[in-house]
Amino acid sequence: MTQPLLDAIELETAPNPDCAVIWLHGLGADGNDFVPIVPELGMKHEPAIRFVFPNAPVQPVTINGGASMRAWYDIRNADLGRREDEQGIRDSERLIQALIARENERGIPTEKIVLAGFSQGCAMTLHTGPRLAQKLAGMIGLSGYLPLPDLLQAEQQGANRDTPIFMAHGTQDPVVTIDRAQASCQRLREQGYDVTFKTYNMPHSVCLPEIGDIADFLRKVLSDR
User: Fold this and answer.
1) Measured distance CA(150)–CA(136) in Å, rounded
2) Which CATH superfamily is domain 8-222 in?
3) Measuring CA to CA, how many Å separate 209 from each of 64, 70, 109, 185?
4) Residue 9 forms beta bridges with which residues?
5) What local confidence, expressed as pLDDT, does residue 225 receive?
């Protein structure tokens, strides 16, 4: 059965891009959320990049009183590690895999694709990347965590064991506490992943120094490929 494609906003830094960044938004946001960051990255003189900002499906979210909003999976309580929505996570994993496959069809191999995400989007990045059978250029996880951590060892594929991962988190984050992010980083490192973890004096958000570090990471993993 063919996996449906999510609608997405796309920006290209130059014609005929040969690299792609698939950037996943957080709970209740949409694909527009990180579009303004593209010019701030200053990637005009890098390899041509297609930025893809997909919209997550609309679904009820338990922690928000069952209100329907864009979400990659349900959040059932404030303790993000309890009663995780495994089915919702796996459904979104397939949607993200379909986006990667579309970039492949448009001529961009997986090894020239960076998977990135903020908050819930970070969780989906850290869940999906290690389970891919094809190597990515890199992964970026912002203000989020690794979901279903106890299943990582059994389900991970070898293709992305050496793929660079950049994780960033605010020291004042009240939504996803920094200790949760640090534990996720540690779990990934224990499984042999190459994780860079940086902190910033900010809440559950993005700051300019972080954007600069993201740009440096993108140059590192895309420029020589």
Assistant:
1) 23
2) Alpha/Beta hydrolase fold, catalytic domain (3.40.50.1820)
3) 31, 28, 30, 20
4) 53
5) 46
The torsion angles phi and psi of 168, rounded to 5 degrees, stand at -135, 145
- Tell me the three state secondary structure of residue 143: coil
Distance CA 93, CA 125 (A): 9
Quick: pLDDT tens for 10-24.
999 999 999 999 999
Residue 58 burial (10 A CB sphere; 0-12, 13-18, 19+): exposed
Which amino acid, one-letter code, is at 208?
Answer: L
pLDDT tens-digit map of 20-57:
999 999 999 999 999 999 999 998 877 899 999 999 99
Three-state DSSP class for 208?
A: helix
**What are the residue ranges spanned by the domains of the chain?**
8-222
Decide: helix, strand or coil at residue 140. Answer: strand
61-97 residue pLDDT tens: 999 999 999 999 999 987 766 789 999 999 999 999 9
pLDDT value at 1 more than 60: no
Token pair, residue 3, equals: 């996996």
For 118, phi then psi, to 5°, come to: -115, 130
Closest C-alpha among 162, 193, 169, 4 to residue 92: 4
Give catalytic residues, as residue numbers. 119, 173, 204
> Which amino acid makes up residue 185?
C
